[in-house]
Design goal:
homodimer, 209 residues, mainly alpha, Four Helix Bundle (Hemerythrin (Met), subunit A), 79% helix, hydrolase (chains A, B), hydrolase activity (chains A, B), Formintransfe-cycloase-like_sf (chains A, B), Methenyltetrahydrofolate cyclohydrolase (chains A, B), Cyclodeamin/CycHdrlase (chains A, B)
């Protein structure tokens, strides 16, 4: 079986639209985040080496390295989302005839639910990071491609808000409320200023068009 | 040469990140819109045929047909964006030594700029339409996959805001101000309630998790 990242865009979209449970919103969130990181890289690649932008050359080199590392992380998350979802479905399919079976099934579900909460939380974090990088691209990148920094921030923002939904769903099913609440607190911290941050970066770009 | 839709997600992201001018934010906008439409279809496909949702069966069938048509349109826009950008670059590359050449080059640029304004405007319209469909999915779709309706609205919203930047850039370079202002008025109408609409649909989903 091909990994999702190796499938064509059209096949990915066909599978997203189908009644197969995966790929779903979690993979779509990672793809959006990766598009955001890729567009930050594009702005960097079209700023680096231009005499007019010599003053920000070193900063753009660093930004490019960060964006490329983040893109790799987010590409990995496309698969991570599918893997943990499949694991969770396998747990729900465990037998539940006897009390022993019920107890075993429930313990397995709870074990995998922790991972199913952490995977989208990591995606949300990576998307928030991509938003922060797109602000630098919007502020200092080549004006000729500055709109791509605006697309970057919107893609990363959509990825963040999407991943957040999956954190919320899976945290809600966790019986270990201390763990769940800790993860939800991390999520709230990421989300706190996301709406205003996305709008601010978008307006920085718009003002330069 | 492979069309973008036939390239793998990873190759698409590599090309997006590279210093090649295309694909850029315009194609990314279309891909995000298509992800939104695909996720509306996913919610429909996992609602249709379920006895619990028999009351909305016909509506979900219609919604699915609309989402699939929109997805096709948006997939076509990935290529349309690259094509018109390449055409525009070819115009800018025309010779401009003599006054005649200058006049011819300018006329060609202006001719293609109209298309370069209309292509992202059509993408913005399709994304706004995908947002409207995701509201129906969020309100009436299978609760078990309702988060995918929330991802759908965010993807389509990011596509809309992204496409809008390209309409703004290209309209600004148009000498035919009447045409440009008419297109910008259409864009403003699409954008007017987009922020609040995205937030409302997202909150409908969140309240159901």
């Amino acid at each position: 079986m091909k990994e999702i990242k190796d499938k064509s865009i059209e096949v990915f979209l066909d599978e997203l639209a189908s009644k197969q449970p995966t790929p779903g919103g979690g993979s779509a969130a990672a793809v959006m985040g990766a598009q955001g990181a890729a567009l930050v890289s594009m702005v960097c690649n079209l700023t680096i080496g231009k005499p007019k932008y010599a003053a920000v050359e070193a900063e753009m080199q660093n930004l490019l390295a960060e964006a490329e590392a983040l893109r790799e992380t987010l590409i990995g998350m496309i698969k991570a989302d599918v893997d943990v979802f499949d694991k969770l479905m396998a747990c729900y399919a465990l037998p539940k005839a006897s009390d022993d079976e019920k107890a075993h099934r429930s313990a397995q579900i709870q074990f995998v639910l922790r991972e199913a909460t952490e995977v989208p939380l990591a995606c949300a974090k990576a998307c928030a990071e991509a938003m922060a990088l797109s602000r630098v691209a919007a502020e200092k990148g080549n004006l000729g491609v500055i709109s791509d920094a605006g697309v970057a921030v919107m893609a990363a923002y959509a990825g963040l808000k999407s991943a957040a939904l999956n954190v919320t769903i899976n945290a809600a099913s966790l019986k270990d409320r201390e763990f769940a609440e800790a993860k939800l607190a991390e999520l709230r911290a990421l989300m706190q200023s996301a709406d205003s941050e996305a709008e601010e970066v978008y307006q920085i770009v718009k003002a330069k068009l």
